[in-house]
Amino acid sequence: MGSYAGYLLETLLTLVVVCGAAFAVLYGARKLGVGRASGPITLAGQLPLDGRRAIYLVRVGAQVIIVGASEAGLTKLGEVPGAEIPVAANEPSGFAGVLARAIAKRDGESAQSAARSTPGEPPL
């Protein structure tokens, strides 16, 4: 039983050391900026079509390239001048963006319904 406990302790200790080393490498790479976008290329917009297909607007200098992404790879669908595509506001994406838009919409609807209600009637 003693050798089994020693083996288990050694395995757990090795796992902790490997996870710690992986965390340190990833943290250091993020602080150094490895993998960050640089240069004149930015993502101007995206439209997910389903789980494996999407359309992207990639701003390259003054041009915007429309790119389709699927299981087969990336395909250039077309180009438009950059002036025709508005610059997106820096609003959060993902869950934070959806939540912020929902709260703003709810607050706007509450203010409109309060303005329409009569003084003796409680707002909706």
Task: Describe the protein's architecture and organization.
- This protein is α+β, with helices and mostly antiparallel strands and 124 residues long.
- It folds into 2 domains: 1-36; 39-113, no CATH class.
- Helices cover 44% and strands 28% of the residues.
- It contains 2 helices and 4 strands; from the N terminus they run H-E-E-E-E-H.
- The chain has helices at residues 2-32, 94-116, and strands at residues 41-50, 53-60, 63-70, 73-81.
- The protein has a 4-stranded antiparallel β-sheet, with no helix packed on it.
- Strand 1 and strand 2 (53-60) form a beta hairpin.
- The chain is extended and about 70 Å long.
- The model has no long low-confidence stretch (mean pLDDT 82).
How many structural domains can be distinguished in the coordinates?
2
Shape: extended
Total helix count?
2
CA-based gyration radius? 26 Å
Q: What order do the SSEs take from the amino end to the carboxyl end, as H and E? A: HEEEEH
Helix content: 40-55%
Uncertain spans, ≥5 residues at pLDDT below 50? none
Give the CA-CA distance, first to last residue: 69 Å
Q: How much is the average pLDDT?
A: 82
Characterize the main sheet: 4 strands, antiparallel
- β-strand percent reads 25-35%
Widest sheet, order of strands: 1-2-3-4
Find the structural class using helix and strand composition: alpha+beta
Beta-strand segment tally: 4
